[in-house]
Design a protein that fits this description.
Number of domains: 1
Shape: globular
Mean pLDDT: 93
Order of helices and strands: HHHHHHHHHHEEEEH
Distance between the termini: 9 Å
Strand content: under 5%
Low-confidence stretches: none
Largest sheet: 2 strands, antiparallel
Length: 306
Amino acid sequence: METAVICIVAVLLDYGLGEPRRFHPLVSFGNLAVAIEKRLNRAGAPKWSGRLHGCIAVLLLLLPAGSLAIALNQQPIARLGLGSIFLYFCLGQRSLREHAEAVAAALTAGELNVARAAVDRIVSRDTQALDENGVCNAAIESVLENGNDAIFGALFWFAVAGFPGAVIFRLANTLDAMWGYRNERYQHYGWAAARFDDLLNFIPARLTAFTYAMLGQTSFALRCWRDQSRAWKSPNAGPVMAAGAGTLGLLLGGPSSYHGRIEQRPALGAGRLPRTADIGRSIALIRQSVWLWLTVISVFFGVFHA
C-alpha cells in the first residue's frame, strides 16, 4: 500500500499547499535548461545538428536527475518520505484550478481584459483579441490537457516506476513545454524533447481520456475520441481534449492565433459553445478524475500487496 499512501499524501499536499512560491525545483530546472539551450541551440544549424544538440541537452538534463532519484529510491526510508515530496512537486492540480478560476472570476465580473491576461498565463496562443467564448475555449482546453500533463501522467509513472518515474516524466514534460514548438528556433532543437514527451505520455493520455469519458457522457466522449483525435496535431492532447469536450457536451477547438498566425485547428467534441460556467465544470471533472485515480490505485495496490 506504500504507493497508494504516497499518492494520496502527495495529492493532499498539493491540495493544501499548492505550488511552492519560492524555490520550486521546476523553476531551477527551467533556469538550467535555459542556460544549456544558450550553449547548444545554434541559429541556422542544419536539421541533423539541431536534433543532435537537442538530444544532448535532454540527456544532460534528465540523466543526472534520474540517476539521483533512482539512487534515493533504493533507500526504504527515503522512498517513503521523499516519495511524497517528490510527487507533490510533480503535481499541479491546485495551480491549474486557481489559474482557471481566475479566468472564470474575471469573466463573471465582466472584466474581459483581465480574463484575457489570466488565460494568457496558461496557454501559448495569442489572447489579446479573444472574445468571451474564445477565452472560455482556451481555458477549458488548457484544463483538460494539463489534467494529463500536470496530474495524471505523474501519478501513472509514479505507480509504474516510483518517484524516479514521476520525476523523469515531469522534467520531460517541462522541456517539451519550453522547447516543443514547431517554429524556427525549436523545430530541430526541440525535436528530442517533444518526441520523448510524446512517448512518456502515450499511455497516461489515453487513460486520462478514458477517465474523462467515464465521468460524463461516456459513449459520446468515446466517439469523439475515436473520430476526432487523429486530426489533432498532438498524438496525446487529441484523445484527452476530444474525450473531455465530448463528456462535457461542448464544442472546442477551431481556429486560433499563435504568434500572429491563424492556425485552423479541427473541432473537438460537439454541442454548444463553452460558457463561463463550463470552466467550473472542467475543474470539477479534473477533481472527480483525481479521486477516481486514487481509488483505483488504492484498490489495485491493495490487492497486489495482499
